[in-house]
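step 3/5: co-fold with magnesium ion
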Amino acid sequence: MRVSGPDLAPLIRAVCGALPAPRAVRLSRLRDDAGVFDEGVLTWMPGPRSYTGEDVAEVSCHGNPLLVERLLRAFQAQGARPAQAGEFTRRAFLNGRMDLTRAEAVLQAIAATSPAGLDVARAGLDGRVAARAEALRDALVDLAAELEAALDYPGEDLLVDSDAALAARLATVAESASAAVATFRAGQLAVEGAKVALVGPVNAGKSSVFNALLGRARALVSPHAGTTRDVVESALVLDAARVVLYDTAGEREGEVADPIEAAGLALAAAMVREADLVLLVLPGHAPLDALGAALLARTADRPRIVVVTHGDLPRRLDLPGDAGATAEIAIPTGAGVDALRAALPTALRGEDPGEVAAIVASQRQRDAYARLGAHASAAAAALVDGAGAAVAVERVYEALGALDALTGRDTREAVLDRLFARFCIGK
Ligand SMILES: Nc1nc2c(ncn2[C@@H]2O[C@H](COP(=O)(O)OP(=O)(O)OP(=O)(O)O)[C@@H](O)[C@H]2O)c(=O)[nH]1
Ligand SMILES: [Mg+2]
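step 4/5: write tokens
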């Protein structure tokens, strides 16, 4: 249990007894009005060198929820109250212990669903995300200063770049901003993961592909057409992302008489709409029929890989030239399975975005970079088309405003409320 606040020592003494030295631990007997009820390890971190910048104490008691509840009530009896969602990190931000990119990285470190997501969070916590934003800020502040100088002392021989050179520097800032925006899909994928739906005709091998990707026999496989009826889901944690796979009921030619099978098909259709990526599974040992063609058409506007099964048998399936990405698989030998698994991140996010500190995994940061880029481009355009330095400098200030919102130098209360509401209590 973590407690934070100004002047915390009397409260902690009342519940835990004597304080250890700052940033040291002590085995403490925990007490309330009724006497000692447990013992635990007390860590004492007086402000300002603490997570929140206030006095912070942490107590590890025995893990019984009854004891935890009693410890909570003991602190409350001394005047403490339960923390709100994200309140510790919010206080850390308000007390200048961290900027907003680090605060969001705390959230990402808690929420990350893949190793890549943890790397993104680490880059944020290390301050590498903030450092990139600060570098852009320095560039914009320099540009603003030079534009102001040109406005204040027109015609003077100042050491200021020409309008064309200033516009080129602004364009570089705008490019960095769009590069940051472009990494958002990768960042979101790394932290939040994605949904991948397997769909296709009955008996195409959807459940076989599902099991092969997972590496275990999770779904029933059989030569009986219509084996899978409900949606079966299972998570596959890759380095780049946690992917939830959904195996669905197969499609048939003509009317589906069985109401349960029809309900299963409705669920499958919903999964196609919901999924971030569709794996359309078609049997490679049979020519493309009307159903296969219809499924190709129906999923054409979705991010998709056409998975051709039965690669161990003579190929009779001819795909149209515009089928897009394909993968061939032979279930009996396992050929093509690893390649399909490896292709999932690229299909979901495009190419590897590279340098982890450059990856934007927060919608809020993405939007700020988009605004920054638009203002920087407009400032460059103002210089190129002759609207002048006065117009350009206003746009540079708008761009700076977007960056300051990003790091939290200038942030409205509402933004904070929305941000910290997404934390869980106690973080
Ligand atoms: N030879 C061969 N057989 C396969 C391959 N993939 C699947 N099968 C067989 O095809 C049959 C149907 O496979 P399933 O994975 O159950 O097919 P499904 O698409 O899930 O079928 P429904 O759930 O009925 O829609 C099973 O007998 C599988 O063993 C493959 O690559 N090669
Ligand atoms: Mg199946």
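step 5/5: annotate
The chain has a mean pLDDT of 92.
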